[in-house]
Design a protein that fits this description.
The protein is mainly beta. The chain is built from one helix and eleven strands. The chain has a single domain, classed as predicted glycosyltransferase like domains (Thrombin, subunit H, Beta Barrel), CATH 2.40.10.220. The C terminus is likely disordered.
Length: about 150
Amino acid sequence: MSIERRQSPRVLATRPVRARALGTSYDFTVIDVSAGGLCAQCTEPPLLHHDYVLDIFVPTGRVARLDARALYCRLIENTAGTLFEVGFAFRSIGEPDTQAAIDALLKAVTAVLEIEAGRPSSSSGPLEDGVETPALGIERRPPHLDVH
């Protein structure tokens, strides 16, 4: 039996949510969010225990910029190629600006998909400045495949 160490419940992303670590080539597909951090997938593993500034996007634009530390990275078996699941903990929790950004993110993650021209929004496409990133699979990882 697994003991849940999480202080805040996870909220699954009900719409396409992506993140980019500023100053790096790391692009992430957000899987779930809590008041303390987020879980995301990417095609290259970030440095563990390193702090990043994450710009987080939904189809309508950026919803938050948050400081976060990469706490774990696990290899995911996926037919589409190599993916990594990364757990981030938000930094500076409790500060008003940080809390406002987390609240905006939680609200955006759970918002109903917007319908554009009769079609649901897609999870692939430009993040910002016309840069394309592919949609990533959402297969869950086997827990024994940790990347250190």
